[in-house]
């Protein structure tokens, strides 16, 4: 099945619905993981990318148009903007552009795996950008929104330690890659047979 540039109403509806599903999954995992500081700050991005990988694969394979990843990442950035993290909108637009560049020559399992794996690595900007570039603004916002000082202290401990940052990046990237492999298998064994693709 080749990539085409002509969008249908069905494509747009599919993109919006699956993007909403992905965003709800991502925010839901983040909220669940917040019960424990270690899980929230070290493991949550990896878990998110592992669970969302198959849905991303299904979305891109079902629509098979250019700019699916860009629209999805942009809407994800808008969701973070609405929650007060304005700097994540341009960041996720950039992530979407990178994913589109990887997929530009065609949607193949290998390119799709690369796009999602790189996106999983870059998704860590959610946690790293605030402490690297916007710490004063972020810490004031965190305290004003009711976050405990112990949470902020843990945040600083994990994201200012090179060892922890390296582990977090590797873990998230590996989980994204694994999510891609699961997505490939589900598409090959179940979705195509069921007539979803």
Architecture overview:
The termini are close together. Helix 3 (68-82) runs antiparallel to helix 4 and helix 5 packs antiparallel against helix 9 (162-194). Helix content is 81%, strand content 0%. With 197 residues, the chain is mainly α.
The largest pleated sheet is described as: none
Into which percentage range does the β-strand content fall?
under 5%
> Structural class of the helices, strands and pairings?
mainly alpha
Q: How many separate helices?
A: 9
Q: What average pLDDT do the residues reach?
A: 88
pLDDT under 50 segments (min length 5)? Answer: none
The amount of helix comes to over 70%
Reconstruct the topology from this structure.
Blueprint: H1 9-33, H2 37-63, H3 68-82, H4 88-103, H5 109-122, H6 125-133, H7 135-144, H8 149-159, H9 162-194
Helix pairs in contact: 1-2, 1-3, 2-5, 2-8, 2-9, 3-4, 4-5, 5-9, 6-7
